[in-house]
Amino acid sequence: MNALKYFSNHLITTKKPKKTINVELTKSQDLVNASNETSKTGARHTENDIIGGNHQHNHSTDNLEGSKQNEDNNQSVYIKPKALRSILRRKIASILWTILLFLPYYLIIKPLMSLWFVFTFPLSVIERRVKHTDKRHKEPGNSGNVSSTSSGNGNDSNEKAGSKNGNLNTIPETVDDDLNASDEIILQRDNVKGSLLKAQSVKSRSRSYSKSDVSLTNHSNTNTVFGTKRMGRFLFPKKLIPKSILNTQKKKKLVIDLDETLIHSASRSTTHSNSSQGHLVEVKFGISGIPTLYFIHKRPYCDFFLTKVSRWYDLIIFTASMKEYADPVIDWLESSFPANFSKRYYRSDCVLRDGVGYIKDLSIIKSSEENGKGSSPSSLDDVIIIDNSPVSYAMNVDNAIQVEGWISDPTDTDLLNLLPFLEAMRYSTDVRNILALKHGEKAFNIN
Amino acid sequence: MEPESIGDVENSIQDDNGSAISGPRKRSGSKTSSAKNIRNSSNISPASMIFRNLLILEDDLRRQAHEQKVLKWQFTLFLASMAGVGAFTFYELYFTTDYIKGFYRVILQFTLSFISITVVLFHISGQYRRTIVIPRRFFTSTNKGIRQFNVKLVKVQSTWDEKYTDSVRFVSRSIAYCNVYCLKKFLWLKDDNTIVKFWKSVTIQSQPRIGAVDVKLVLNPRAFSAEIREGWEIYRDEFWAREGARRRKQAHELRPTLE
């Protein structure tokens, strides 16, 4: 009997629906109480016996004493009402199931579970850590909330807390390509270190901010305001790249210089290191009528550069040289890459300043476009000029990319180096914002 | 950005402020309102515009860096396997003690010549340069190109736990994609099947991290003050936090009613 009890207890502990069985048992106890007027202790006795009986049923090779007792119990079971019998049947089934599942459970499921636990342990640790830090972030945010409500600015709260509370739902999805005015953050300047701190509540914000600033934050729909006094408020776009730029068929314009940027040409008289390999162009100038021969050399990676760039930009040639000379050269360049230059501008399109030289005024590109289309905003936010001499782009410094002038260096990689930058620039909303960074900090004060 | 949309933003700011302005600039006919808008457009801090464009620049450079890395690894593996097979055939043909003859020898000779021709063509056609040399120099050459704008592209080192989560996410994502593909292709399960839905939710949950996780742009300390540089870092982190929240919300809306 002891062995049986051990077995039964063990089996009951291994199976999962232990609780339900207990519940059933208590039910059965009630039934038994009602029908047979047996005491509760008696019922508990039967419970034990039932379990014992089942095991007797399954392990028939147990000791004799136990089997005898169980036979008696079985007889008593037969006397008992139908409800109890059904419970018994159910219990037998469940125990059978546990025996069936005993080996798979301990041999397969448990090891798998523990393995899974071991593998995912670092993950769960990280997750817990993240949650922990989140909570820590949240707490000051909540305190900020309280203080701000007390000061009458219920709208100001920490960004993280705001996002948790489903404030995102309030952001309209329709304005997706704008810097949204409502998403602002004000940064506080730490006077000691000269670094920026995130202001946590309105109270902690220093008084040095102008009144209009504060009133703006009060009126804004959603919460936090980033920005500094010098840099102004930070406005965040809804989408990284606005749809108007992603979906448009219009490419930005890339204005490229010819001499010393893409090619180098030398007249026959001058000696060149590898003049024998150059392309020969015969130019007849209108005034004199004397033909002159030019050897033209392409800058390294010139064709590769033009092929790549023509996929992203509308290419325009703007050269300070004469039309008679430039045209055959451009034709030759066009023959070596799949696309074409959409426009050509020559010396006649430049502005001549005494003592300075020929200056390329980019506004004629825009004005010619306007004439063609009728109405178009004449801003140069999508025009980039690549040139080797700062004089040529003196009127549009903010649109310019400077390259080193090239004459004969065969290991030059300047055009290659520009490719990643130009590829990344094709989605910018205003090229002047980036290109003006060459002035350093001044770029943040102009505009 | 087109000027009209700047006007839109300004209008929304002004509306918040309580002043009444009709519609965006392109719709406004009167001179006074357009003049107001022009005045307002100086209200958007140039820092926001610059940072926003820097974000776009950085994101595309990140994409390019990733693309180049993948390209480099693909072709390095390809060349390495070719070199391995080539070395094996060379050894079999000329360095083993017992002489190999018959059909096996022909096959080995053919493989060796095939591989050598492929390698030579690979080099001559410029593919080696395109796929190995240029990707390896990506960071140096890009930095040479953007140096004149006082910005620099740097790699971000991630900690071991971030690497671990990244790899787990990658594995579970690829498994989920594979499963969805197989279930739909070979078992002809519909999109609204529970198993397909489950694996789709797995793909959503194991999205890669976003933001400046591997590559980032930093402003040159010689040209910009600490305030501006720090402002840029904060702007970037804040934008990506918002973007992440937005994507999570989108994913939540897309997710089937599993929870």
Automatic annotation (TrEMBL), chain A:
A GO term, aspect molecular function: phosphatase activity
One Pfam family hit: NIF
Superkingdom of origin organism: Eukaryota
SMART domains cross-referenced by the UniProt entry: CPDc
Name of the protein described by the UniProt record: NEM1-like protein
Originating organism: Saccharomyces kudriavzevii (strain ATCC MYA-4449 / AS 2.2408 / CBS 8840 / NBRC 1802 / NCYC 2889)
Source taxonomy: Eukaryota, Fungi, Dikarya, Ascomycota, Saccharomycotina
Gene name of this polypeptide: YHR004C
Automatic annotation (TrEMBL), chain B:
GO BP, sorted A to Z: nuclear envelope organization
The protein's name in its UniProt record: SPO7-like protein
InterPro entries reported in the protein's UniProt record: Spo7
Pfam family, one: Spo7
An example Gene Ontology CC term for this record: Nem1-Spo7 phosphatase complex
Protein's organism: Saccharomyces kudriavzevii (strain ATCC MYA-4449 / AS 2.2408 / CBS 8840 / NBRC 1802 / NCYC 2889) (Yeast)
UniProt-recorded Gene Ontology molecular function terms: phosphoprotein phosphatase activity; protein phosphatase regulator activity
Residues that span the membrane, as ranges: none
